[in-house]
Amino acid sequence: NNNNNNYKSQPRKKVKSYESGKERYFKEDDNLDLKAIREKMLKEETSADQNIAQSIIKNKRFKGNQEFNDDERLDDFGAGTLDISVIQSKREKMNEEKRLVYDRQRAIHEANKLNKIESSCYYCYKSEKILKYLIMALGEHMMLMLPYKGEVVPGHCLIVPFQHCCGMTQLDDDALAELAKFKVCVARMYASRKQEALFFETSLRKKSHTFVECIPLPRENAMEASIFFKKALLDADEEWSQHKKVIETRNKPVNLCVPKGFIYFHVEFGCSGGGFVHVIEDEEKFSPTIGRETVRSMLDLEPERFNRHKKFTKEDEVKRVKLFTEMWTKFDWTQQLEGGEYKQ
Predict the structure, then answer these.
(1) CA separation for the pair 284, 237 (Å, rounded)
(2) How large is the angle between the packed helices 290-298 and 225-235, nearest 10 degrees?
(3) Which is nearest to 207 in space by CA: 119, 139, 141, 327?
(4) How far is 95 from 241, CA to CA, in rounded Å?
């Protein structure tokens, strides 16, 4: 035991700096400011991550297997679990016949995986899990529906894309144009009731179906919404974030503010009031209900956790649908589409 104690790691001795009066670990600490030290640490961490990635790639489990497996699957961002260059290198080593077989197996696997995800999704229109009585309007790329498990305030609704994706940044221009059209009509509906529109999207889990939440705010509360959300985003996520914590959108769509493939939180104050984007660096530490929680704080409502397991009767749901229909009918642009008219 005495011999083993000789090999125990000892705490690193600190070196006293007589020039600055501070304690340091390395001699060069006096010549580096806090920013330079942080950049040096990040560079070392990146090198370590690259070494780990190379070790994984060299693992025999990833070599010589012509069958497409889960280790090479594409996630909902369109990026592989492995570096895409590894997959490309693998294809280049195959002859044309094997390459066609590989591509076909890959396409079949992805199609089956997507079908499995969509069939169990509560927001995919073709899914058996979706509650279709909550759908208020159908566009060509989007639908308007009421939220599951109640609402923050009456008039709360969701704009949901038909495409199963985890962020609006993944949609094409036509879908984004329709999203903007829904927002304008929802904002007009709120304005008719002397309310202001608040829109926010939380792009999180890779297999989740994104949507934009629309919440009406009393005008006196809407004036301070940007203050509440800015503080909430500054307090969110990592202390040492690599990205700017709050990015002002200045009326730009989210796809021009966040690169495709990043997860984020996006909030807009009306259709022309600007907004904020926050790039999420640690999904595990980021609250998926930050938008609703911030609104509840603004309006002095009970926290979200007290309403999460609240049960609603069939009568409650019918009443909610009827109330929203009465509010929305006058502003529903989808009535212009074929088959979009309301049945008497």
Answers:
(1) 9
(2) 140
(3) 119
(4) 45
